[in-house]
Amino acid sequence: MAFTDLLDALGGVGRFQLVYTALLLLPCGLLACHTFLQNFTAAAPPHHCQHPANYTEATTNDSGAWLRATIPLNQHGVPEPCQRYTEPQWALLEPNTSSHGVATEGCKDGWVYDRSIFPSTIVMEWDLVCEARTLRDLAQSIYMSGVLVGAALFGSLADRLGRKAPLVWSYLQLAVSGAVTAYVGSFSAYCIFRFLMGMTFSGIILNSLSLVVEWMPTRGRTVAGILLGFSFTLGQLILAGVAYLIRPWRWLQFAVSAPFLVFFLYSWWLPESSRWLLLHGKAQQAVQNLRKVAMMNGRKAEGERLTIEVVSSYIQNEFASVRTSNSILDLFRTPGIRKVTCCLMMVWFSNSVAYYGLAMDLQKFGLSIYLVQALFGIIDIPAMLVATTTMIYVGRRATVSSFLVLAGLMVIANMFVPEDLQTLRTVQAALGKGCLASSFICVYLFTGELYPTEIRQMGMGFASVNARLGGLAAPLITTLGEISPVLPPVSFGATSVLAGMAVICFLTETRNVPLVETIAAMESRVKEGHSKRDTEQKNEEISLQQLGAPPLKETI
Question: Any bridge partners for residue 48, and if so which?
Fold first, then answer.
């Protein structure tokens, strides 16, 4: 008997599972606000050079005329953001006058920003424009570096300390560092606390998903995993609304950070995974948690009959060969786990690099940034509904592969759309982003089901590290557009298509399959799969020989 049979006996997908899942997914939704927060807090509004202090606009009552006399225009007739004339050129106010050859200089006295949409952003506050414009992307890269470090740190800690402790700490760390970020007075301090915020991303996402999966019977895992994706989508929609209502960046930063203090307070009620407790010899606490589950699911009598011996009878065979300590090498030591790990490294990296390449620079589409953010969130809803259906009735492998390939093709096709068709480009990019978002959440669930409980959190943490590498690589690949505009979409699209093909070729289906608990059980399942295929091939050869056809090997 498997552990999932015990959960079914205690009510299956009951009240406990529903409440537990909701309490875990709510913070995951608001976590999306932090991931895409710099689309608003670091927005770069239109700007131009400040005039020298010894000049005044008193010489004219027309501020537009003053601007034309002091700031050169680019080819689109818009004031240059990083240049000004060394002296006011009043002659340019006359018709048919050229500015060719007029001396210019940099913005030595600062910049004037258009505050009609954004009253304040970090770009305005610390002048992250012109020569300093790369610092804006640096801040996001530092956040993603924190996510990378958190994936490596919390993935390992969760297998050693349990799922709950790192999760509770992540809530507290995000609440504190997020609130402090809203009050810092320097760009360097801002980056430091954004790094600390990024670390909590993996601690919250990975541990929340593991707790949901490990407390959920087999028949409820797919829906629970997809709900994580919907919560992330809801977070993007919440961000669009909150950012529209709260324009100053400091207040916006505080508004999306304060709720995590509430999550920290109620997270103490959440029980630890009984799978993990049993795996690490804490059977008494596991039984206590299971009795609470039974009571909440209306199965109090079944819960009272639970003893350590009864619970052990459900998991005796599964945990027989468990080792008490694991290392990252366990992800590569045995052939079955090694193949899964290598394939997932590529899938997570490719999915992430394409996803963040599309979603982290909304101003490039030339439409309202709030509208684009909302569109990028709304498009995920139908995409994930399709993903949910296919994962339930078709399988995980085909779903992940199809969405990755489709997203890659859309990204590549988008580079053939003329730039003046901004609405079409935005819609097509949103569709590609929706496919990538669906693939992302599917692969989260798929990864949790592929790895055994013994190293599940370590495996998911390692896979997430590759996703964070993709997030770091995305802005670097985007800069290749300065060399050739086709390089970024081709890079994003090609990696996504190749990852989709790798899923079909190297990963096995996990739909309606009980979770594997140990590395040994995983390898046994792989060997059984190979033996089954070998048997099927031999039977096919025998059938062909009976029909008078040559054996397959001779045909080849």
Answer: 112
60 contacts: CB under 8 Å, gap ≥ 6: 66, 69
Distance from C-alpha of 357 to C-alpha of 475, rounded to nearest angstrom: 7
Three-class DSSP category at 73: strand
In 491-540, where do the E strands start and end? none
390-393: long-range contacts (C-beta < 8 A, 24 or more apart)?
391/222, 391/225, 391/226, 391/442, 391/445, 391/511, 392/222, 392/223, 392/511
User: Apex CA 488: angle with CA 484 and CA 493, to 5°?
Assistant: 135
Segments of 155-235 assigned E as strands: none
Question: How many CB atoms are located within 10 Å of the residue 20 CB?
Answer: 21
List the structure tokens of 426: 């935005």
Measure the CA angle with vertex 83, ends 77 and 86; round to 5°.
Answer: 115
Burial class from Cβ neighbours inside 10 Å (0-12, 13-18, 19+) for residue 57 reads middle
Torsion angles phi and psi, residue 354, rounded to 5: -75, -40
CA nearest 486: which of 420, 406, 416? 416
Q: Which residue has the higher pLDDT, 314 or 204?
A: 204
- As a whole number of angstroms, the distance between CA 553 and CA 549 comes to 12
What whole-number distance in Å separates Cα of residue 129 and Cα of residue 134? 8
For the chain, percent of residues with pLDDT exceeding 70: 85
Confidence of residue 49 (pLDDT cuts 50, 70, 90): confident
pLDDT tens, residue by residue, 96-135: 666 666 777 778 888 888 888 889 999 888 988 888 877 8
- Whether the pLDDT of residue 555 is over 50: the answer is no
113 DSSP assignment: E
Question: Going by C-beta distance under 8 Å and a sequence separation of 6 or more, which residues neighbour residue 484?
Answer: none
Contact 314, 278 (CB under 8 A): no
pLDDT value at position 111? 85
Provide the pLDDT for residue 475.
73
pLDDT, tens digit (0-9, with 9 covering 90-100), for 513-553? 877 777 888 878 777 655 555 555 555 555 556 556 555 44
The amino acid sitting at 553 is K
**Cβ pair 432, 524 in contact under 8 A:** no
Report the Cα–Cα distance between both ends of the chain, in Å, rounded.
44
Q: For residue 113, how far is the Cα from the chain centroid? A: 32
Helix 218-245, helix 15-35: angle, nearest 10 = 40
The DSSP element (H or E) to which 402 belongs, if any, is helix 396-414
Which tokens belong to 539? Answer: 């039977």
- SS3 category, 84: strand
Taking residues 83-93, what's their average pLDDT? 74
14-28, 195-209, 216-230, 485-499: range with lowest mean pLDDT: 216-230
Burial class (CB in 10 A: 0-12, 13-18, 19+), 399: buried
Cα–Cα dist 542/556, whole Å: 16
> CA-to-CA distance for 148 and 134, rounded, in angstroms?
21
* Torsion angles phi and psi, residue 10, rounded to 5: -100, 20
